[in-house]
Design goal:
It is a single chain. The protein has 703 residues and is an alpha+beta fold. It has 5 domains: 2-189, no CATH class; 205-243 and 564-660, Roll (Chitinase A, domain 3); 251-262 and 467-557, Chitinase A, domain 3 (Roll), CATH 3.10.50; 265-348 and 459-463, Chitinase A, domain 3 (Roll); 350-449, Chitinase A, domain 3, CATH 3.10.50.40. It is built from 23 helices and 21 strands. Strands 18-3-20-19 form a 4-stranded antiparallel beta sheet. Strands 14-5-16-15 form a 4-stranded antiparallel beta sheet. The protein has a 4-stranded antiparallel beta sheet with strand order 6-13-8-7. Helix 1 packs across helix 3 (81-108), helix 2 (56-74) crosses helix 3 (81-108) and helix 7 packs across helix 23.
Length: 703
């Protein structure tokens, strides 16, 4: 039981969420299987996935299980908002995966055997998720230690409640589900091949290269004001390209005003009074870091500063007083501060060192790694071995291996803290041993820069924030505004007449959004927006030290955006089309027989592009001109093209030379397209399955 307790206390949020997530995945199967027992009603429907109704009770039960498990593993009685939101999202993702993929696995016969699971947990192919769990890492090296997994499993039943075993079995179920998804993706990958005719077409697109000359007249040569854009052209463009204006989900637009609670004189006085009370205790403190971290709004800064690196007032004081001297209280950046000269040392700005890294792993447990490091240390200190030779034979740091472990010169910000402390506080020629998250280092300080006086400053910061009375004052002002302006017209007119109120805008808010730029924790406001009607005015939202009153300005349903909303965007595209038609007509009227003729008659520069293939994305000097690329690689040599309406203007071109250059092979093309497909499977296959499931997410009704 003691082992379980120790592991649990050190697990942290990561393992809590993983194992907790597993718990509700474990329970999920029974919920889905026995779903008919739940009340299936639209009132309590939180989602619809693959045509199946998902009820609020089902989802919330999973969240509750995860919350309970997190509390048990972290020894915490409450969860902050960020953790709670993370748990809800993890619950949702697991729920969706089970509904989306469950039937697919059954149909394809995808399973994970007990032997396979054993190998994933404690065999030769440990699952990466297990390796990431903090309790299974050696606390001294930070490296995964399989023996800690085995020890944990041996003591599972020491927990008389059975919670430990239930949690672990549930976690294993998550590992199994992830392995099933991996197998599903592998089936897709193995089933893919590039047909020979398609590969040959791709090969030609890669190898056939052209050089061509061209002239181009830019769209900007025709002023916008001289072109009429008919309404029927806008409607035609909209109908032909309506998919471009498809909204994948419903969104809302909100207009709002902020009543920003600013600290009063009393708030400033209170902050100063509170920090002043700490001065005497701070001066007497023997552990400045602990004192700051306990009493300050900003944690202890362990940086060592040389003269000139601190703010002017602080710099002058710290480099003219003795250790323990106190400055303040003083006011800076809306906070009262007290600073103490915590420590003074003569330290180099940079160090030159070399090291041997002994890295514990499955084959070299920590105790053996430590014994090896100690042995190498003794050899070096006794002069019985060469550092370079030992580094090349034993060091796990491949980057410095060629140079015999040489790290070159580096400053105090370059390395991790334990390593930095060791080499900067040692002397030239010292050989030290230090353990970091990377392993055990044997480090030799080869050289040090000149030592200069450096200081470490401990600062208590007390931010000036609005107090209770201040907040009540601003809340009453916001409430008065909300009470007197209950219609959209009143809302707009009052803001327009005011010298102090500013209307702000938040557009295209999605149903599960949580933030609005400039507003902390705007979830309640967004939830309100999806329940309100157009023009409705909200009550007061308390968002940190800001009080907000909002108006629902617009509702944008899922599906094609109405023409009036995208009309201006379409008008720009149609304007470009009309200009292109005008320029193309002008070109055709020239009856030009050559590019030189076009250049002379229309005063256009004759230009060249070379080594262009069909598969190219850009043309040197032109950028992305896909139509020009397509025409240039498909027309005969020495034949003038028709006018081509590109991205920047209208082109006419002539291919001077086209040839197969053999820059790649058929086998390389097949490998390239296969790699591209395999790469996309891992992040697109499941997304495609989710899209096909037509998920209707209505969590906003409840959260």
């Amino acid at each position: 039981m003691a082992v379980l307790e120790t592991l649990r206390n050190k697990a942290g949020l990561f393992v809590s969420i993983i194992i907790g997530l597993a718990l509700f995945a474990f329970i999920l199967g029974d919920f889905i299987k026995n779903g008919s027992a739940l009340m299936r009603s639209k009132t309590y429907e939180i989602a619809e996935i693959n045509g199946k109704s998902v009820q609020y009770q089902e989802y919330q039960a999973l969240v509750d299980q995860l919350v309970d498990n997190y509390k048990r593993n972290s020894n915490k009685s409450g969860l902050d908002d960020a953790t709670m939101e993370q748990i809800r999202q993890q619950a949702w993702e697991t729920l969706v995966m089970n509904y989306v993929m469950g039937d697919e696995y059954k149909e394809l016969g995808i399973t994970v055997t007990p032997d396979e699971l054993l190998d994933m947990v404690q065999g030769q192919n440990i699952d990466p998720q297990i390796k990431q769990i903090p309790i299974f890492k050696n606390p001294q090296t930070g490296q995964f230690d399989k023996s800690r997994v085995i020890l944990f499993l041996k003591h599972l039943d020491d927990d008389p409640t059975g919670n430990a075993r239930a949690s672990w079995l549930a976690f294993e179920k998550v590992l199994v589900e992830n392995r099933k998804l991996q197998k599903f993706n592998n089936l897709l990958k193995e089933g893919y091949s590039v047909p020979e005719p398609l590969a040959k077409m791709f090969l030609k697109e890669e190898n056939y290269r052209v050089d061509f000359n061209y002239v181009m007249k830019s769209y900007t040569s025709i002023p916008d004001s001289t072109v009429n854009v008919p309404e029927n052209r806008i409607k035609e463009y909209y109908n032909e390209n309506i998919k471009q204006y498809e909204r994948p989900e419903e969104t809302r637009d909100v207009e709002y005003v902020i009543f920003d609670a600013k600290p009063s004189k009393q708030d400033y006085a209170y902050a100063k009074q509170m920090i002043t009370k700490l001065v005497s205790d701070f001066k007497a403190s023997k552990d400045d870091k602990a004192f700051v971290n306990l009493n300050s709004d900003v944690p202890f800064d362990d940086t060592w500063y040389k003269q000139g690196e601190l703010p002017a007032q602080l710099d002058t004081f710290m480099f003219s007083h003795e250790k323990g001297a106190i400055l303040g209280p003083y006011f800076e950046k809306n906070a009262y501060k007290v600073s103490k000269l915590s420590d003074v040392r003569m330290l180099p700005d940079s160090v030159k060192a070399r090291h041997i890294l002994i890295q514990p792993d499955d084959k070299l447990p920590y105790d053996k790694a430590k014994a090896l490091a100690d042995s190498l240390m003794n050899l070096l200190k006794e002069g019985k071995a060469d550092f370079t030779t030992l580094a090349q034979k034993y060091s796990a740091d491949k980057a410095s291996l060629v140079d015999g472990g040489d790290l070159g010169w580096f400053d105090m910000k370059k390395m991790v803290q334990p390593f930095t402390d060791t080499v900067f506080f040692a002397n030239k020629g010292d050989i030290k041993e230090v353990t970091t998250k990377f392993g055990i280092h044997i480090v030799e300080i080869e050289d040090q820069g000149p030592k200069t006086k450096k200081v470490q400053v401990a600062t208590i910061v007390r931010n000036v924030e609005p107090g209770k009375q201040t907040l009540q004052y601003y809340y009453s002002i916001a409430s008065k505004f909300a009470g007197e302006n209950r219609t959209a017209k009143q809302f707009d007119e009052t803001i327009e007449k005011s010298d102090t109120l500013v209307k702000r805008y938040a557009s295209n808010l999605k149903v599960m959004d949580k933030a609005i730029p400039g507003l902390s924790d705007a979830r309640d406001l967004i939830k309100w927006a999806f329940k309100a009607d157009t023009g409705e005015i909200s009550d007061v939202f308390d968002l940190g030290y800001k009080f907000v009153v909002a108006k629902l300005a617009a509702i944008h349903p899922k599906g094609p955006a109405p023409l009036k909303e995208v009309e201006e965007e379409i008008k720009i595209n149609v304007l470009k089309e009309i200009k292109g038609e005008m320029i193309a007509d002008e070109m055709l009227k020239q009856n030009a027989s050559s590019l030189e003729d076009y250049s002379k008659k229309m005063n256009l520069d004759l230009q060249n592009a070379s080594d262009v293939s069909f598969s190219a994305i850009t043309i040197p000097g032109l950028g992305m001109e896909f139509k020009v690329i397509a025409v240039s690689t498909t027309i005969p040599e020495n034949k003038l093209s028709v006018p081509i309406m590109g991205n920047q203007g209208v082109f006419v071109l002539k291919v001077n030379k086209g040839e197969e250059k053999g820059v790649t092979t058929l086998e390389n093309v097949k490998q390239k397209w296969t790699r591209d497909f395999v790469y996309r499977v891992d992040y697109k296959a499941y997304d495609a399955m989710k899209k096909a499931a037509d998920i209707k997410d209505e969590r906003y009704k409840f959260y």
